[in-house]
């Protein structure tokens, strides 16, 4: 496998699939063997690779792994076929449209010892990768709160899920990943204003396993496109803009005092602001490089299916909370030790 390079296939040639095709076609050590899309390649996005009608045709060509970028509702069906054929897979997020479907995929790939990951692209954003490293190094001290805002106009490519499963799953995954913690509770409210059967705005408040407070605001109803993550803690606040891949730190300049009357008050004060200079490689390319290396046994720096399952579980809890008007408690276990 390592001498001839990896043979890869792609399932789905839509708005995300076309980007996967572009990256796969130029990925070192990988040959894009074929693309599956029943609609064909009317836009010329397949990078010259043959376009097939079925996943079975792709499997018959002999591939080492496939990227699954078809509609969310088809992830389970396609993933199970690949697992049964012994083919590793990188599945676009969310890993499945139901918790049970995600669990079946986890079992199918894990029971066969196959490499499988979920395309939670924010894990490969330079700003968030730098933020995670700095949190792990203790540069913020104790973490108090994570706030995300992810809003913009409705993307017409989405037809099968609402804003929680499509957009909020980004924030759920990145929050657990950058902090290394798991969600223990969530309370949410949703609205639907665009005339579609699914929700198009959600506001959620949650708590992580170490007590960190979480706030998510996600919608498809704003003309302003925003991708904002802030992490506030003992030593200040990190702000990540994943549209520009910028990371900024605002330090807490509060100084200790020997003035007896003030010793009981522990506040914060505005301090230095630092915008970090960080390398800005394309997140999708980094994601593909790391998944390729995982298939080759060289790396484990991917979002696993089990982590993707946890994200789907939290998203389901968000929708349950919004429907019931109650706070939903989430179970924690050893299988979520890497966050989410």
Account of the protein in words:
With 340 residues, this protein is an alpha/beta fold. It folds into two domains: 114 residues, NAD(P)-binding Rossmann-like Domain (Rossmann fold, 3-Layer(aba) Sandwich), CATH 3.40.50.720; 190 residues, Dihydrodipicolinate Reductase, domain 2. Helix content is 29%, strand content 29%. The protein is built from eight helices and 15 strands. The strands form two sheets. Strands 14-13-12-11-7-10-9-8-15 form a nine-stranded mixed sheet. The protein has a six-stranded parallel sheet with strand order 3-2-1-4-5-6, with helices on both faces. A hairpin with a 4-residue loop joins strand 9 and strand 10. Helix 3 runs parallel beside helix 4, helix 5 packs parallel to helix 6 and helix 6 packs across helix 8. It is globular. 45% of the residues are buried. The mean pLDDT is 92. One of its GO terms (molecular function) is nucleotide binding. It comes from Streptomyces lunaelactis. Pfam families: GFO_IDH_MocA (PF01408), GFO_IDH_MocA_C3 (PF22725). InterPro entries: Gfo/Idh/MocA-like_OxRdtase_N, Gfo/Idh/MocA_Oxidoreductases, GFO_IDH_MocA-like_dom, NAD(P)-bd_dom_sf. This is Dehydrogenase.
């Amino acid at each position: 496998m390592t001498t001839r390079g990896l043979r890869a296939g792609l399932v789905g040639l839509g708005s995300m699939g076309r980007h996967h095709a572009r990256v796969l076609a130029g990925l070192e050590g990988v040959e894009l063997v074929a693309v599956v899309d029943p609609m064909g390649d009317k836009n010329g996005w397949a990078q010259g690779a043959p376009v097939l009608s079925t996943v079975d045709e792709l499997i018959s060509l002999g591939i080492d792994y496939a990227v699954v970028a078809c509609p969310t509702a088809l992830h389970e069906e396609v993933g199970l076929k690949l697992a049964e054929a012994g083919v590793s897979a990188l599945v676009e997020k969310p890993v499945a449209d139901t918790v049970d479907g995600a669990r079946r995929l986890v079992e199918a790939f894990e029971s066969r010892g196959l490499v499988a990951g979920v395309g939670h692209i924010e894990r490969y954003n330079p700003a968030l990768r730098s933020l995670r490293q700095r949190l792990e190094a203790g540069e913020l001290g104790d973490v108090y709160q994570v706030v995300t805002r992810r809003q913009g106009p409705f993307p017409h490519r989405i037809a099968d899920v609402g804003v929680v499963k499509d957009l909020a799953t980004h924030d759920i995954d990145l929050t657990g990943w950058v902090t290394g913690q798991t969600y223990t509770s969530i309370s949410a409210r949703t609205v639907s204003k665009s005339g579609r059967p699914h929700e198009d705005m959600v506001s959620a408040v949650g708590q992580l396993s170490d007590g960190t407070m979480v706030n998510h605001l996600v919608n498809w109803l704003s003309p302003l496109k925003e991708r904002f993550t802030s992490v506030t803690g003992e030593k200040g606040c990190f702000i990540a803009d994943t549209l520009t891949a910028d990371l900024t730190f605002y330090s807490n300049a509060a100084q200790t005092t020997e003035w007896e009357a003030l010793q009981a008050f522990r506040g914060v004060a505005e301090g230095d602001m630092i915008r970090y200079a960080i390398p800005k490689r394309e997140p999708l390319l980094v994601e593909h490089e790391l998944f390729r290396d995982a298939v080759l046994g060289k790396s484990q720096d991917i979002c696993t299916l089990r982590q993707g399952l946890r994200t789907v579980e939290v998203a389901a809890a968000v929708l349950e909370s919004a429907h019931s008007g109650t706070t939903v408690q989430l179970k924690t276990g050893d299988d979520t030790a890497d966050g989410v």
